[in-house]
Amino acid sequence: MFYKQILIMGGKLFLGNHLIANFDGGLITSDAGIVWIAELDKKLGITEKFGNCFQDHRHQSYVDHSVHELLAQRLYGIILGYEDVNDHDKLRHDPALKIALEKLNELEDKKGWLAGKSTINRLEYCPETILDQKTSRYHKIEPNFEAIEKSFVEFFLESYKKPPLSIILDMDVTDDQVHGNQEGAFFNSYYHGVCYAPLYIFCGHHLLVAKLRSSNVDPADGALDELQRIIGLIREKWSETHILVRGDSAYAREEIFYFCENQPLVDYVIAMGTNGVLKLRADDVIEKAKHEYEKKLAPITELMDSLFQKKEDLEEVKKLVPISTWYRSIRYKTEKSWSCQRRVVTKVCYGSDGLKMRHVVTSLPASKIPPSKLYTKKYCPRGEMENRIKEQQLDLLADRN
Question: Which fold has domain 145-272+388-396?
Answer without folding.
Answer: Nucleotidyltransferase; domain 5 (3.30.420)
